[in-house]
UniProtKB/TrEMBL annotation:
Protein name, as recorded: Pseudouridine synthase
InterPro entries: PsdUridine_synth_cat_dom_sf, PsdUridine_synth_RluA-like_CS, PsdUridine_synth_RluC/D, PsdUridine_synth_RsuA/RluA, RluA_PseudoU_synthase, S4_RNA-bd, S4_RNA-bd_sf
Pfam families the UniProt entry points to: PseudoU_synth_2, S4
Assigned protein family: Belongs to the pseudouridine synthase RluA family.
EC number assigned by the record: 5.4.99.-
Top-rank lineage group of the source organism: Bacteria
Keyword entries, A-Z: Isomerase, RNA-binding, rRNA processing
Top-level EC class as recorded in UniProt: isomerase
UniProt xrefs under Gene3D superfamilies: Pseudouridine synthase, RNA-binding S4 domain
UniProt source species: Luteimonas vadosa
Annotated RNA-binding S4 domain residues: 11-82
Coiled coil: none
Catalytic activity annotation: uridine(955/2504/2580) in 23S rRNA = pseudouridine(955/2504/2580) in 23S rRNA; a uridine in RNA = a pseudouridine in RNA
Length: 316
């Protein structure tokens, strides 16, 4: 029997059980709810039932064979994530995610950021606030308290509503191929996420008569300096769409350097051979927001990865 804490009030039963039964697949969660093995205050419930503070939830014994087969994250991954922590307080943890590590496991990836952090902190309740592309490095925020998770996700929905949001200020650093104009270039182009054969996501910029089929997306590219014929930029986004910066950068004719999905293969080859760029040059540099209805401001920063600093130095 598990008593629902006050900060879990309003949470769906299925999500509550996913937190209680770490590693359990959703299919198993739904099965034990449908079969009546899970009870709230003695009665049956549905997956979308909202819990109240002090509810008593019966959680049946569950054997998680798949989880035990999966083992634990490799020591190198555990050490890398431990070393990546850039900020922590009672309710939030922030890391500078290395490039090449997924936000979460799945699709052939055994352990992502969240699974590895949970392995490092088995006694803590940790939840992803947002995600970064696997190849993007930089700032990621993880909630240690449900109240912080709920408030931050509300701020993100505020942003996703389109221009005029402002719950969070997200700043990225990127190297774009070619010579961008000076100043700030704003890209207000809807994006549509499609699936290619094999389930791979591919995002398209939707213009003209197709614009209505995309979701509103707004990015601001600010020219910082030119290096070796390329453009080192600051990017601020007002929406958080899948692959937004990468697709908007390609749309304006200056794809992100090292992008093997939306980039320029010939430019990528030259940068790899001449300055050793072997990854996507996109880094989530900072995140600004305020919790407690605006009373507790946060300004979180993740310094540019050393391998990207070295690329800039070689470009001269």
């Amino acid at each position: 029997m598990v008593r629902v804490a006050g900060d879990r009030a309003g949470q769906r039963l299925d999500n509550f059980l996913l937190g209680q039964l770490k590693g359990a697949p959703k299919s198993l969660i739904y099965k034990i709810i449908r079969s009546g093995q899970v009870r709230i205050n003695g009665g049956r419930a549905k997956p979308d039932t909202r819990l109240q503070a002090d509810d008593e939830v019966r959680v049946p014994p569950v054997r998680l064979t798949a989880s035990s087969d999966k083992g634990v994250p490799a020591r190198g991954l555990l050490d890398a994530l431990e070393a990546s922590i850039v900020f922590e307080d009672a309710r939030l943890l922030a890391i500078s995610k290395p490039s090449g590590i997924a936000s979460h496991g799945g699709s052939g990836i055994g352990f992502g950021v969240i699974e590895t952090l949970r392995a490092l902190r088995p006694q803590q309740s940790l939840e992803l606030v947002h995600r970064l592309d696997r190849d993007t490095s930089g700032l990621m925020v993880i909630a240690k308290k449900r109240a912080a998770l709920v408030e931050l996700q509300a701020l993100m929905r505020e942003d996703s509503a389109g221009p005029g949001g402002g719950g969070l200020r997200k700043r990225y650093l990127a190297l774009l191929a070619g010579r961008m104009p000076d100043g700030v270039m704003s890209v207000d182009v809807p994006l549509h996420v499609g699936l290619r054969q094999g389930g791979e996501r591919h995002v398209q910029a939707m213009t003209g008569g197709n614009a209505a089929s995309g979701k509103p997306s707004l990015s601001h590219f600010k020219m910082l300096e030119r290096r070796g014929g390329q453009s080192y930029c600051e990017v601020r986004i007002e929406t958080g769409r899948t692959h937004q910066i990468r697709v908007h950068a390609r749309h304006i004719g200056h794809p992100v350097a090292g992008d093997d999905k939306y980039g320029d293969p010939e430019a990528n080859r030259r940068l790899r051979e001449q300055v050793g760029l072997r990854r996507l040059f996109l880094h989530a540099a900072s995140l600004e927001f305020a919790l407690d209805a605006g009373c507790s401001p946060y300004v979180l920063n993740a310094p540019l990865d050393q391998d990207l600093v070295a690329v800039l130095d070689r470009l001269g």
